[in-house]
Design a protein that fits this description.
Helix content is 37%, strand content 14%. The chain is of the alpha/beta class and 463 residues long. It has 2 domains: 143 residues, Aspartate Aminotransferase, domain 1; 274 residues, Aspartate Aminotransferase, domain 2, CATH 3.40.640. The strands form 3 sheets. A 7-stranded mixed beta sheet has the order 4-10-9-8-7-5-6, sandwiched between helices. Strands 1-2-3-13 form a 4-stranded mixed beta sheet. The chain has a 4-stranded antiparallel beta sheet with strand order 11-12-15-14. Strand 5, helix 6 and strand 6 form a beta-alpha-beta unit. Helix 4 packs parallel to helix 10, helix 7 runs parallel beside helix 8 and helix 12 crosses helix 13. The radius of gyration is 22 Å and the shape is globular. The structure holds 4'-deoxy-4'-aminopyridoxal-5'-phosphate. The site of 4'-deoxy-4'-aminopyridoxal-5'-phosphate (PMP) has 16 residues, from helix 5.
Length: 463
């Protein structure tokens, strides 16, 4: 249908584009550009491919732009599961349970040894806010109001609300939005390529020690939680250095700081395990997830915690406010867990974790090969189908490539039918990493085509 080229369709599409231009406020977009170009409108997707309003086909190497559509487009079985659920029961507030909600929680906990409870909401930001509120309520109820500070890491990102922006390790994201809630404290990043300590053998340990130094400076009795991405996504696809997570876990245990791992990007398969943290043998107190939970077929996010944390909110006759005093209206939409159940079944039945590992290795190998030929490639990082290519002006100085050149690489790939991403524009010093996160169904041909598109783009943009 999308390729139908009769006059009525062309008129329809023109109308849609003008309606969009006139009335839709796009995310993260400077609209001035639409005075001279049309807003892009995607109309159809199947597997790894999407088609735009002009009928052009693209290979999507970023799973819907922001690492979301993990099982690919056009999954009729998820649509059927959602439809069946909606006609049976679409909604009831989550103070009551639902069949799909209970079943998905049970299946999810089955993939997360040591975890026990699932709290439903709608977005990654919201799932993270729930943790912040749980930590604050624990501080009030069990630590006399102390242990309320939440540590976050330079370069990490946890969402778009004022609370999660207060925890953004990308300070530029906060510009023009203050004032912010108090009690959020930054710890240093762990990007070995841009080591704060020069070239050292034990970078991972030093980066973890830097977290402990912040805890000691603030006072361990004031610090409630440490919130980290398992692999930093938008801040540059930063895989943790050797020895980092072991030490982080140890520091948290010693200072009784709860460990919150934000799996909004890595959650459900992206890195070749169900969750990113499972590569590193850590045992978190909280795990949050959103994007890949239902691959974008429904809006659902989960805040998962342990029975030990859950017990802290158990009924206390002396305190009528002892339960977690929070609600999310649309956390009761049953479409979410219905879609999530089918999404998880697909990942399992189609062996997508194994495919992600194999195709991830192929992608990383292909990208490293590019670094041999293109001087602009400073570093290649990643795990599974989650990779970043940091572009630089000069390998010796590691001066970041100019944003306009990074964007030119993205645009060149797009013009050649491959959608790749880059770390956020307008974040100076952080905007020079190409991002790849194809769906977990990617084939060897898909991977090779993605690498070839980047190869060509780097030649054309950097010579
Ligand atoms: N955490 C991480 C690591 C993210 O990358 C994002 C979104 N890019 C969020 C949280 C926020 O998720 P949402 O946009 O669904 O609120």
């Amino acid at each position: 249908d999308v390729l139908r080229n009769d006059a009525s369709r062309v008129n329809d599409i023109r109308h849609v584009i003008e309606a969009d231009r006139a009335h839709v406020w796009h995310h993260l977009t400077q609209h001035k550009g639409f005075e001279t170009t049309d807003p892009r409108i995607f109309v159809e997707g199947k597997g790894m491919r999407v088609w735009d309003a002009a009928g052009r086909e693209y290979l999507d190497a970023v799973s819907g732009g922001v690492w979301t559509v993990n099982v690919g487009y056009g999954r009729a079985s998820i649509a059927d599961a959602v439809r069946d659920q909606l006609v049976k029961l679409n909604y009831f507030a989550n103070s009551a349970g639902s069949i799909a909600g209970a079943r998905f929680a049970e299946n999810l906990i089955g993939k997360m040894p040591g975890m026990s409870r699932v709290y439903y909401s709608n977005s990654g930001s919201e799932a993270n806010e729930k943790v912040f509120k749980m930590v604050r309520q624990i501080a009030h109820r069990h630590h006399g109001g102390r242990k309320s500070k939440i540590l976050y890491r330079e370069r990490d990102y946890h969402g778009t609300t004022l609370g999660t922006l207060a925890a953004a390790g990308q300070a530029q994201r906060r510009a023009q939005f203050g004032p912010f809630p108090e009690g959020f404290v930054e710890v240093p990043h762990c990007l070995e390529y841009r080591s704060q300590y020069g070239a050292v053998e034990n970078y991972g340990e030093l980066a973890a020690d830097a977290i402990e130094a912040v805890i000691l400076r603030e006072g361990p009795d004031t610090v409630g939680a440490l919130c980290l991405e398992p692999i930093t996504a938008g801040g540059g696809v930063i895989t943790p250095p050797k020895g980092y997570w072991e030490k982080v876990q140890d520091i948290c245990r010693r200072h009784e700081v709860l460990l919150h791992i934000d799996e909004v990007v890595c959650g459900l398969g992206r890195t070749g395990t169900w969750f990113g943290y499972q590569h590193y043998g850590v045992q978190p107190d909280f795990v949050t997830m959103a994007k890949g939970v239902a691959s974008g077929y429904a809006a659902i996010s989960c805040t998962v915690t342990t029975e030990r944390i859950f017990e802290l909110f158990k009924d206390d006759p002396a305190d009528p406010m002892s339960f977690f005093r929070d609600i999310s209206t649309f956390g009761g939409c049953v479409a979410g867990p219905a879609a999530a159940l089918e999404n998880m079944r697909i990942i399992e039945d189609e062996n997508l974790l194994a495919n992600t590992q194999a195709m991830g290795e192929r992608l990383m190998a292909g990208l490293w090969e590019l670094s041999e030929r293109h001087r602009a490639v400073g570093d290649v990082r990643g795990k599974g189908l989650f990779c970043g290519v940091e572009l630089v002006q000069d390998r010796a100085t590691k001066e970041p490539a100019e944003e306009r050149l990074v964007q030119a690489v993205v645009a060149d790939c797009m013009a050649n039918g491959v959608i790749i991403g880059a770390t956020n524009r307008s974040l100076p010093g952080l905007n020079n990493t190409l991002c790849l996160s194809p769906a977990l169904i990617a084939t060897a041909d898909d991977i090779d085509r993605i690498v070839a598109a980047i190869d060509g783009a780097l030649s054309r943009v950097f010579g």
